[in-house]
Amino acid sequence: MSEKRARNVSTAIISGSFSGTTSTLLLQPLDLLKTRIQIDSRNRHDVLRETFKEVLKNEKVIGLWKGTIPSLYRTVPGVGLYYGCLHLLDGRLREKPSSVKRFALGASARGFVVLCLMPINVIKIRFESGKYHYKTVPKAFTYIWSTEGVRGLYRGSFTTIIRDAPFSGAYLMFYGRIKEIVKQSLGKEKLSSPSIAICGLTSGIFASLLTHPADVVKTLIQASSEPYKITAIIKNIFKNNGLQGFFKGFVPRALRRTLISAMSWTVYEKIMSIVGVK
Predict the structure, then answer these.
(1) Distance CA 257, CA 200 (A)
(2) Could you report the per-residue pLDDT of 139-159, keeping only the tens digit for each?
(3) By C-alpha distance, which of 177, 180, 60, 71 is closest to 121?
(4) How deeply is 31 buried, as exposed, middle or buried, from its count of CB atoms within 10 A (0-12, 13-18, 19+)?
(5) Which helix (H) or strand (E) holds 35?
(6) Largest CA distance in the chain
(7) What does the alpha-carbon distance between residue 179 and residue 199 come to, in Å, rounded to a whole number?
């Protein structure tokens, strides 16, 4: 790799990490609410509002940010690595690649990051669930390692990959195509930050809808330490809640994923533009 290319990849990683930090600190409550809703076996009419009230009542406002530390452990390097991988895989990403290429790039980059950071993802879910009382991330890691081994730290890897890789692939595909449509309709070569954010929000909604069932299954697997079979969990979700059970927690997840993706891409593209990296 040339010195210039290595510098550009490093810049992409730093830009992505900065955007990931900002969005995680702001949007952690949505992730916590999503996790609580998905592991709640009760059938409630206004589940989002009721869950929000329960957290405030039992854990105060600060409870909405439970799991922020493991989220930062995952998101800061995760977003940075994701953008770095994209830049490394295709430094000419913005030169109108095909939709299939965009999907492949996004899915490949995210799949790599998921495997690297899976133990942190498991720890994050358990912090958010409220069922465990780990004091710190390192202590949680040590406890899971000693009681469940490597399998515990990589619990739910398959469902995480089939959620995250398609999400990132679909997001990048929709994002690129929507940006092209907006540029053509406005007659502009470059879009403003608000326009980029709107493209990101729209793309995030579509990608979230496609991948949410896998997210529900993943959360149930990782929030428990008991032996499991994916087919049994899927059957149980359908038995208890029908098809709508696979979309539990969709609203907070869609809000968080669309906002975090929109913010990340907006900040990332702004920083890359400022430093002159394409």
Answers:
(1) 10
(2) 999 999 999 999 999 999 999
(3) 71
(4) buried
(5) helix 3-39
(6) 59
(7) 6
